[in-house]
Prior knowledge:
The chain is an alpha+beta fold.
Amino acid sequence: xxxxxxxxxxxxxxxxxxxxxxxxxxxxxxxxxxxxxxxxxxxxxxxxxxxxxxxxxxxxxxxxxxxxxxxxxxxxxxxxxxxxxxxxxxxxxxxxxxxxxxxxxxxxxxxxxxxxxxxxxxxxxxxxxxxxxxxxxxxxxxxxxxxxxxxxxxxxxxxxxxxxxxxx
Length: 168
């Protein structure tokens, strides 16, 4: 009985970690990131994908500062710090493809895009999360991205946390 209570407490703590931070965004000097589902979801309004399908998310950079911000996009796996956790709060393993890409430093799956984001403009990028992290198992996952924008200030700008579901 005691073990059941401890396990229930651990599970509730893991679930609340994602839920508690869901509304908290790290905004630095008026610059923010928003993470949302792309149209690749089976049910975009409920953030549900079928197991084995491509899970793509949109990152929107929002410049509500009075500064023009410049940054580059080369490869989403390198451009964004991506935190993917399962429903128990454990980090999800990287895919073999992503591990190989990181080991070689390869930008083979990449692009060279220079972004100039003027005050009060937004820009979007798509991240194929399932190419980078193993989302083949059904369950609930929590995803957040972050990135440094030195022209805005010190530290990382973090997106909202997004809860998604993978179904069989």
